[in-house]
Specification:
By secondary structure, the chain is mainly beta. It is 9% helix and 35% strand. It comes from Nicotiana tabacum (Common tobacco). This is Monocopper oxidase-like protein SKU5 isoform X1.
């Protein structure tokens, strides 16, 4: 019966797509998520989370509007959720895969995600979202390709490569998880042991079990889809003797700019074009951390991720010093580069009409949130806070509580301070109202002395401004409202602020979080509840028939209980 109902749910999605005149394909994946103790990227014994025995996990290769089915079998010894970083889950936060939307997949069980890459193109990733598991792997690439009827704004490359770069710890993730919750050892997570490229350690580092290499042919151009899948560090990426051309980020085609190097912050993704226009040889590919200086005489050199760009007919191994990049502490370089990344207003993307058809040049703001990210201490325990509130994950996912009992007994809507900082750090289940089809301005203020980056599920936001010190309304005069890039993860520099605009046209319960894993795990997140009181399922999907129940609903006999009437803000 449950299989029939699941099939009916998928059929309804397909029917809606067909009636809208949009073609799509249904894609099926079956994933077995397990712990592997033999991969050991840095030779030290540790647990690595694999998918079908792979680290990183398999590629999800979709096209705009495709429906993706991922049947996840949890072969680990603890609960699991997978989130789809940057996939907007249009009208369907039931598939988002975070603690506020889904019950976990328990050990020895499986659950199928069914979601649509609705009106999206671009470069994204997936990863485990709970239990600090991302630090152990379980991540992988997502491509959403253009439909054939819509031109890509650059010539078709010879090939595409996924390049997942991220910091890595040789300590087992469960030990790290315990240490970050301890006041004495929490700082041990601040500096990782290496930077990996596609799960492989730096070239010529003695403890690396492998190295990453990409083979190219002279005269050809290639697309590299680069993502920062790390948990702590931003990095600067460059290729010896080669320029890179930035063309896309997290679902938006950018105005094309030619760069010597590119800063990529935690959780971000980019596409760059690289032309093999040098002598046939091997060349270094380098990712070195921002806000950190490697010591030439110590093992910290492992914090330079190093791979190889190999020309097909090369008989020459890599040589010479690594290509130099900007000073890792040069914030102005990074800010200026971020400001130079702008939206291509004239090209189509998921739809044939230009991206710039929908822009922010003349919008009326309906809400403003000013969010300070910082450290706190509650009852002697280290925590990360937003406006001095540290998110405390309830046993019942917010989305279930919202749908079935109006949140009663789980959260109180709009208790979180969106414009001020509480006097003392405290726990809270932070859920705020987002006005449906209103324009929300979010100002992220980083009160830390290290980089941070923020991500919003369910949307792309317009990155309109960067500034130093405290934000004031007068700062809006400095915003770029002509061609700000649209993305879902944005960096916030130490002691500075970043401002974004977002159009809240996607009803659901949406996670707004720090992408830095320790910050997120220790409370730097909240949820935005975007509510549309129209009961038409075309406005927001009903829960799937395979919905998992937990918390206050765990003993329910009905697979999908009846919903409650809509709550009112501030009740």
């Amino acid at each position: 019966m449950m299989a029939f109902l699941k099939g009916l749910f998928v059929y309804v999605i397909l029917l809606v797509v067909l009636l809208s005149g949009v073609t799509c394909t249904e894609i099926y994946h079956e994933w077995i998520v397990s712990i592997d103790t033999t991969i050991n990227p840095l030779s030290s014994p540790q647990s690595v989370i694999t998918i079908n025995g792979m680290f990183p996990g398999p590629l999800i290769n979709a096209t705009t509007n495709d429906i993706v089915n991922v049947n996840v079998f949890n072969n680990m010894d603890e609960s699991l959720l997978i989130t789809w970083n940057g996939i907007q889950q249009r009208l369907n936060s039931w598939q988002d895969g975070v603690s506020g939307t889904n019950c976990a997949i328990e050990p020895g069980t499986n659950w199928t995600y069914v979601f649509q890459a609705k009106d999206q193109i671009g470069t994204f990733t997936y990863f485990p979202s709970i239990n600090f598991q991302k630090v152990a792997g379980g991540y992988g690439p997502i491509r959403v390709n253009n439909r054939n009827v819509i031109a890509v704004p650059f010539p078709k490359p010879e090939a595409e490569f996924d390049l997942l770069i991220g910091d890595w710890f040789s300590t087992d993730y469960k030990s790290l998880r315990s240490s970050v919750q301890d006041r004495e050892s929490s700082q041990l997570f601040d500096v990782p042991d290496a930077i990996l490229m596609n799960g492989k350690g730096p070239y010529e580092l003695s403890i690396s079990k492998g190295r990453e290499s990409f083979t190219v042919s002279k005269g050809m151009t290639y697309r590299f889809r680069i993502s920062n899948v790390g948990t702590v560090m931003s990095f600067n990426f460059r290729i010896q003797n080669h320029k890179i051309v930035l063309v896309e980020t997290e679902g938006s085609y950018t105005n094309q700019i030619t760069l010597d190097s590119l800063d990529v912050h935690v959780g971000q993704s980019y596409s760059v074009l690289v032309t093999a226009d040098q002598n046939e040889a091997d060349y270094f590919m380098v990712a070195n951390p921002k806000m950190y200086k490697s010591n030439e005489s110590s093992d910290s050199k492992s914090l330079e991720g190093i791979g190889i760009l190999h020309y097909a007919n090369s008989l020459t191994t890599v040589s010479g010093p690594l290509p130099s990049g900007p000073d890792p502490f040069d914030i102005e370089f990074s800010v200026n580069q971020a400001k130079s990344i702008t939206w291509n207003l004239t090209t189509g993307a998921a739809r044939p009409n230009p991206q710039g058809t929908f822009n922010v040049s003349n919008v009326t703001l309906t809400q403003t949130f000013i969010l300070h990210g910082s450290k706190g201490e509650i009852n002697g325990w280290p925590r990360y806070v937003v406006n001095n509130v540290s998110y405390l994950t309830p046993e019942t996912p917010l989305k279930l509580a919202d749908y079935f009992v109006n949140g009663s007994g789980v959260y109180q809507l709009d208790r979180f301070p969106t414009h001020s900082v509480n006097d003392a750090a405290a726990y809270g289940v932070s859920v705020v109202s987002g006005i449906h089809k209103g324009w929300l301005e979010i100002v992220f203020k980083n009160d830390l002395d290290v980089m941070d980056s923020w991500h919003l599920d369910g949307f792309g936001f317009y990155v309109v401004g960067f500034g130093n010190g405290d934000w004031t309304p007068a700062a809006r005069e400095t915003y770029n409202i002509f061609d700000p890039v649209v993305r879902s993860t944005v960096q916030v520099y130490p002691g500075r602020w970043t401002a974004v605009y977002v159009f809240l046209d996607n009803p659901g319960m949406w996670n707004l979080r720090s992408q830095h894993l320790k910050n997120w795990y220790l409370g730097q997140e909240l949820f935005i509840r975007v509510f549309d009181d129209n009961p038409n399922p075309a406005k927001e999907r009903q829960p799937p028939q395979n919905l998992l129940l937990c918390g206050m609903f765990e003993s329910s006999l009905s697979p999908v209980p009846s919903p409650a009437p809509a709550p009112q803000a501030g009740w």
